[in-house]
């Protein structure tokens, strides 16, 4: 259905639809595969005669894909009903299925009904920092935490995982109403109970070339980047390293590859990986059943593999970078296998792995005891029987982590640099956290206000608004009308209650407090939250604020909407007795006398918004270089007295710089040479060669601008040298509505750039990755004219601020 909008349809039928108690909906990896713990739970239910009444609905991307059922036994395939993700049928099941099972998160419009049972299996024991533990990325928690707090059952494989999710990672402790079931991972049953031969036969069926007489080594690297659309550099490195190992161990090992789903989309197109790259559709735990030696990096897959008692190799060439960027929960010294830095070290270790792996036997056994204590092959059965029959087991621990504390919900505004924010920061540091559980609801943090978020007390839990409101089309129109006018004429209360239910994961609070008191848009969600007492603050003479004119405009004219919401609040609180008197007089038609109260602001502590002066960071030197000399010192670590090895190189080698560190005035850079990691070198040994032109190709095409990212359009061919700024014409975010004529493409060592024009005067060079949806215009003048007419009709103004600025 072309114009079908899942969120609108879901909202329109949310209150009307009825729950079907015999339906289970499963979604794994956003519908991309039938795999992981949802698959293991399905197999347990479908094989058990006690549960024959259930209809099993699996979410897939394409009903007709031949790979949908690749992990499902033949005898159970007929028991599955497919629905395509984001179809009308899919949304109907999201509205009506009694049980919903996923290993990740449902979309931002999903809001569990009270009658539904939500089971979240998650997808790995935490090795890398998660959620609130990742510094400077607070907003990433938004839909994850919203989903977690909705669940009835969260499956945890071990006490370590429970601690992270309940504690610092997602701060579920104190407010989570569901149950954490600590009993192992259902998906590990697939590794324990599948024979090696069956798993290898499935690999062969999917096109993997295996010698049945040789052990299987599987390399499973995790995803490194931030840009999921451009993983090409990672693939080039993987190909080079795999080629090296396969050549070294020809006739000794089958060496094959399973990559992260983000990488697979691109990796499958490389002919060099034919017969080696495992199809993304094959369940990772079935792959582990076929694996004799596992090579991985920061992937939590190694925890699952511990149940096999087989050797592990950690290949972590970028451990120092990754640990700084993301952070780790585990002490690297406790890992049950060696951490190797180069593919050459891997080759040396593989040559004597039987002997060398004995050195890690003690650590291996301790890791098994700590991280897979419950994984005996019967995890799925235990969990199914507990959830559906309430049958308990000595190998199943149920943890309830809600508290008796008074639960407070605050909206503090956007935490801009102002007095209200400072007052709120002081308040969070004055509250008694032995008495209160505190949730702060706000917008996703803007980078320039991030330091204010960091000043909030660490005991609070942040919830960020995620997704668009759950309104029907009619409700959205009414909401927009109200927002525009700033007056409440006909308030869609059902819609606002539904939206508050979605935003707050269906949670109840003792007190909900709009501490800002300025936002008509945000006040509505506090007003319609499920809270016993609702309060709104007044920090100023709000009538004077509403009528204040600045440069011919009235920035707070919509305060009338806030005033009209006052009757939904139990208390309207001023920050002084004098201010209470002023507001009660000027806003008397909106406030009843019994609503009025005051609470003095906490005094300001220290300098309001002075950020700490930090040492200036060294600018990023990442890019493509060449060696100046033929003999180069390769350091193990970026230290002046670090161990080094002298290696000989051609000046034509392609050197990629990945990271930079300055030590005692010497700049060190971490490098790949011809896509194989070697170590650190002094930056003075390199010369930049990323802008060296390989070829120029003239083309006649038209393209669109990628909308998910922002790029610069340069006046001249960009130099690409890190830290050097080129003159920019505009940013692509301002011109996404227009088509762009591509006249030529320049190939450099650093990548491709295209010369583009909109035919209306804006022209320049842009990175090729900024373009998509190409159309060939050769010998098609009428097609070109059509695109130009579109641009004339959608002529947009670019930002004058950017023109010819240095970037």
What is this entry, summarized?
Belongs to the CDP-glycerol glycerophosphotransferase family. The chain is of the alpha/beta class and 807 residues long.
Give an account of the 3D structure.
It is a single chain. By secondary structure, the chain is α/β, with parallel strands linked by helices. The protein folds into five domains: 6-188, Rossmann fold; 194-340 and 350-371, Rossmann fold; 406-598, 3-Layer(aba) Sandwich (Rossmann fold); 623-688, SH3 type barrels (Roll), CATH 2.30.30; 693-793, SH3 type barrels (Roll), CATH 2.30.30. It is 28% helix and 23% strand. Strands 3-2-1-4-5-6-7-13 form an eight-stranded mixed beta sheet, sandwiched between helices. β19, α24 (577-586) and β20 (596-598) form a beta-alpha-beta unit. α2 (36-46) crosses α16 (379-389) and α6 (186-193) runs antiparallel to α16 (379-389). It is globular, with a radius of gyration of 29 Å. The chain starts with 5 loop residues before the first helix and ends in a 14-residue tail after the last helix.
């Amino acid at each position: 259905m072309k114009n079908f909008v899942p969120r609108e349809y879901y909202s329109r039928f949310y209150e009307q639809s009825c729950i079907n108690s015999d339906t289970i909906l499963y979604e794994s990896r956003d519908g991309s595969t039938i795999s992981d713990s949802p698959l293991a739970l399905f197999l347990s239910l479908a094989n058990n005669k006690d549960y024959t009444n259930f209809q099993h609905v699996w979410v897939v991307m394409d009903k007709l894909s031949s790979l949908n059922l690749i992990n499902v036994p033949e005898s159970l395939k007929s028991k599955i009903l497919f629905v395509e993700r984001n179809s009308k049928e899919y949304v109907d099941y999201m509205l009506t299925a009694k049980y919903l099972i996923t290993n990740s998160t449902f979309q931002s419009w999903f809001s569990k009904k009270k009658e539904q049972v939500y089971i979240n299996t998650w997808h790995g024991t935490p090795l890398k920092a998660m959620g609130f533990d990742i510094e400077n990325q607070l907003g990433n928690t938004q839909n994850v935490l919203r989903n977690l707090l909705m669940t009835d059952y969260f499956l945890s494989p071990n006490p370590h995982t429970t601690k992270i999710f309940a504690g610092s990672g997602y701060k579920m402790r104190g407010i989570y109403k569901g149950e954490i079931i600590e009993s192992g991972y259902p998906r590990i049953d697939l590794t324990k109970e599948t024979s090696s031969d069956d798993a290898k036969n499935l690999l062969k069926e999917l096109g993997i070339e295996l010698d049945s007489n040789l052990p299987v080594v599987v390399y499973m690297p995790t995803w490194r980047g931030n840009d999921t659309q451009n993983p090409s550099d990672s693939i080039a490195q993987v190909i080079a390293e795999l080629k090296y190992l396969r050549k070294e161990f020809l006739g000794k090992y089958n060496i094959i590859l399973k990559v992260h789903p983000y990488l697979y989309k691109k990796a499958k197109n490389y002919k060099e990986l034919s017969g080696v790259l495992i199809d993304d559709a094959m369940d990772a735990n079935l792959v582990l059943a076929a694996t004799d030696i596992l090579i991985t990096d920061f992937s939590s897959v190694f925890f699952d593999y511990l149940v096999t008692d087989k050797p592990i190799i950690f290949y972590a060439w970028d451990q120092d970078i990754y640990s700084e960027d993301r952070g780790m929960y585990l002490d690297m010294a406790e890992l049950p296998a060696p951490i190797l830095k180069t593919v050459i070290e891997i080759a040396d270790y593989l040559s004597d792995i039987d002997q060398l792996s004995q050195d890690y036997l003690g650590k291996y056994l301790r890791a098994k005891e700590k991280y897979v204590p419950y994984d005996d092959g019967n995890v799925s059965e235990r969990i199914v029987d507990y959830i559906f029959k309430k049958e308990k087991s000595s190998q199943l621990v149920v943890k309830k982590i809600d508290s008796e504390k008074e639960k407070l919900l605050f909206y503090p505004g956007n935490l801009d640099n102002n007095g209200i924010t400072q007052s709120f920061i002081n308040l969070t540091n004055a509250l008694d956290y032995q008495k209160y559980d505190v949730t702060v609801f706000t917008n996703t943090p803007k980078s320039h206000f991030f330091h204010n978020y960091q000043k909030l007390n660490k005991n609070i839990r942040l919830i960020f608004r995620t997704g668009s409101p759950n309104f029907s089309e009619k409700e959205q129109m009414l909401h927009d009308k109200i927002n525009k006018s700033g007056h409440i004429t006909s308030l869609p209360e059902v819609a606002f209650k539904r939206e508050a239910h979605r935003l707050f994961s269906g949670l109840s609070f003792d007190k909900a407090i709009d501490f800002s008191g300025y936002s008509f848009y945000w006040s509505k969600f506090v007003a319609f939250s499920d809270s016993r007492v609702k309060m709104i603050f007044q920090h100023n003479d709000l009538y004077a604020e509403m009528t204040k004119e600045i440069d011919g405009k009235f920035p707070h004219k919509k305060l009338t909407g806030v005033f009209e919401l006052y009757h939904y609040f139990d208390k309207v609180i001023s920050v002084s007795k004098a201010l209470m008197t002023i507001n009660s007089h000027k806003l008397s038609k909106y406030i009843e006398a019994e609503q009025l109260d005051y609470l003095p602001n906490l005094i300001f502590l220290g300098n309001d918004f002075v950020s700490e002066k930090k040492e200036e960071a060294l600018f990023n030197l990442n890019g493509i270089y060449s060696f100046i000399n033929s003999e180069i010192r390769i350091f193990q670590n970026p230290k002046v007295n670090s161990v080094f090895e002298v290696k000989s190189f051609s000046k034509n080698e392609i050197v990629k710089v990945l990271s930079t560190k300055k030590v005692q005035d010497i700049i060190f850079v971490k490098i790949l040479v011809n896509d194989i990691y070697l170590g650190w070198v002094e930056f003075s040994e390199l010369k930049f060669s990323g802008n060296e032109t390989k070829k120029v190709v003239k083309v006649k095409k038209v393209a669109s601008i990628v909308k998910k990212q922002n790029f610069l359009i340069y006046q001249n061919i960009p130099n690409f040298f890190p830290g050097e700024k080129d003159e920019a014409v505009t940013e692509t975010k301002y011109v996404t509505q227009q088509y762009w004529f591509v006249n030529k493409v320049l190939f450099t060592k650093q990548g491709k750039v295209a010369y583009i024009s909109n035919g209306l005067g804006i022209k320049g060079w842009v990175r090729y990755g900024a373009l998509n949806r190409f159309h060939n215009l050769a010998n098609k003048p009428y097609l070109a004219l059509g695109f130009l007419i579109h641009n004339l009709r959608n002529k947009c103004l670019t930002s004058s601020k950017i023109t010819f600025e240095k970037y």
